[in-house]
Amino acid sequence: MNKFAAVTIATLMLMAVFVSAASAATSVNTVEVRSPVYSGNTITTALPVSFDYKEFAGFYYDIDNDVGSESIYIDGAHVANPRTIQENGLVYTTTIQNVGYEFEGWVANNRYPKMGFLAQEYVPVNGQPDVLSKLLLDTKDKHTMRVGQSLDLGEGYTLTPKQIDVDGKKVWLELSKDGTYLDDEVISVDGNTIDGSTWNYEEDDVGGEDDVIIMRAHVKEVFQGQVDSLAVIEGLWLISNEPLKIESDDKFGSLEVKTIGVNSLELKNKDTITLTKNKNIALAGDIKIKTADDNDVRFYFYKEITEPGTYKVRGTVADGSSRWNYASFAGFYYDLDSDIASEEMNVTITGTRSVQDGDLVYTTTMQNVRYEFDGWVANNRYPKMGFLAQEYVPVNGQPDVLSKLLLDSKDKYTMRVGQSLDLGEGYTLTPKQIDVDGKKVWLELSKDGTYLDDEVISVDGTTIDNSTWNYEEDDVGGEDDVIIMRAHVKEVFQGQVDSLAVIEGLWLISNEPLKIESDDKFDTLEVKTIGVNSLELKNKDTITLTKNKDVKVAGNMFFKVADSNTLRYYPYAEYTIGETGPSTPDEEVPPGEEVPPGEEKPPVTPPGEEKPPVTPPGEEQPPTETPDEKPKTPGFEAIFAVAGLLAVAYLVRRD
Hints:
The protein is mainly β. Among the domains are: 40 residues, no CATH class; 115 residues, DU1608 C-terminal domain (Tick-borne Encephalitis virus Glycoprotein, domain 1), CATH 2.60.98; 152 residues, Tick-borne Encephalitis virus Glycoprotein, domain 1 (Sandwich). It is 6% helix and 47% strand. It is built from two helices and 55 strands. The termini are close together. The N terminus and C terminus are likely disordered.
C-alpha cells in the first residue's frame, strides 16, 4: 500500500466520524411551543395570567434588538370561576415595532415595521396595523446568478437577470409572479451607493395602500465574462402583495377586534371561554389552550407546528445568571395532566459573558406517568424522564439507561388479518390469524422485516391487562426482562368476508437505549452524579456567551446570544419535522384474480366501514443521527477510526 492510498483511507475514516456527528436537530412529527403553565386556583385574582413575547416563544421576538410585539392577559374581574372566562376577560394586544433588515447595507432605509399577529409574523403595510402582509423573505445571503437563471423568492415570485451590459456595470432584472411578468429594472453598480444599486419594486392598491414597496433587491456586482454573464445579489426582502385587512369587530376564532390604534391592535374574547378538562381549545390563529385531564384546573397556551422544517423552541430571555425549568423553557419535558416535570438548568454568569467550570448545572429527575391508554389498571404507570430536551423512558427504572419513547397511544386501530401496523423505528405489528370462534387473535411482532416474537391473545372474558401482550427482551442496555411493547386487543371479529382485530392501547420504546456512565461527556456537559432516580451534569470547561452566536450546550440544546454589547440570551432546543406519510398497507388482490395456493386472500373492507389507518397519528419516525445519541467521547465511530488509522500506519510501515 502506498502512502497516498493510506492517507486517503485515513481521511475518509475521519470524515465518516465527523459527518456522523454533524446533525443536531431531533426528528419529531410535531413541535409544540407552550407558554408558562397556569392554575385555575389563581385566575380569579387581578392579572394572574399575563405573559408576553419573552415568556412565550410562539410570539414574535427579535433578540438582537430586544424587540417583541404580542402579549396576553386574563382580567380576573371577568372570571366567574376557575373554569370560566367571561366575555372580554381574555385580552390580546400587539404593537408595531421597527426592526433592522437582515442586510445591514441599506443605510437610507435601514429599518421597516414588523408586528406579530396571533403568533405569526407580519409587516404592517405602510406602517398601518390593520393592513398586514406576510414577510416572505429577509436575508443577507449572497446569490450568484447566471443570465436567464431564476431565483425563487417564495409565494410564486421569481427574480431573473435577463442581460448584463457589455461593460459589466449594469444588469437588467425582471420580476415575475406565478410565471407572469410584473416589472423590470436596469440596475447599475458603477460608482453607486448600496441604496443606489438596490431595486425597490412598488405596487399600488395593496390592501388599499398605494406606493407599497413589495421587494427590495440589492445588486452587489455584475460580471461579463467570455463564457458566463453573472449577477451577484446580496440583500433581499419581500412581502406578500395580498395582505390581511383588519376592521373593527372582525372575528378571529374566539377573539374579536376591539381597538385599532395608531400602531397597535387589541382583541378580546366575544363569548365565554370554558376551560373544560382534557381539551385543546382553539383560541385564534395559531394560538390554542390546552387543559389538563384533571379535576384541578391547569392549562397553558400553545402553538402547534406540523409543517416540515427545522424549528427552535426557546425559553425565557435572560440578561445574566438565570434558571430555567418546564415553566420557563418549553423544550423541557412536562406532563400537564399529571403536573409532572423533570428537567432544570441553572446558569451563573461571571463577569460579563462567562460561565465558569461547574457553573452550568443541569439536573433531571425520573417521574412516574400514566399511559395514554388508561385501561391498564394493574400497570397504569411507567417511568419517564426528560434528558437534554428529549423524552426518554428509564429502562427498568434506571436513570442511566434511557430508551426513546416511540409510541404511547390510546387510539383505536381496526386491522385486517395480514395487515401490518407501523409502530416506528422499524417495528411492525401484524394480526396473523383470528380463531374460528372470533375470540382469539394470533399477533406477530417484527423489526426491520425480521420476526421477533408472536403471541395468541384472548379477549373472551378476560380483563384488559390479560388481553394485553407485554413483549419483553433481555439485555437492553444491560437490563433483563425489559418490556419493550404493550399492545391491548380490544376485540376480534371473524366474519364471512373479513377477519379483524381491534387494537386499542399501544406503547413502545426503543431496544437500543442510551447507556450513561459517570464522567460521560455530552458536548459541553459532563455527568457528575447518577442518583437513584436522577442525573446531574455540569459544564467541564468555561462557556463564553459570545455575542451573535449560537452556543452548543448539549444534545439539541443551545444558547442563542444577541448581537448586542449588552448580554441577552435564551436557551433553545432544535427539532426537525420530516416529511413523513402513512405506511402502505398490503395490496389487495383485484376482483377476479386468483390467489396463489397457500396464500390467504387479503380481506375487503366491510360495506360502510372506513379503511383503517395504518400509521398511528403522532408516530415518531426514527430520528436522524445526532450528537446527543452518541454520548461518549470518542464513541464507537472514533474507536473504529483510530483502529483504522493504526492499521494504515502498520501497512505503511511494513511497505
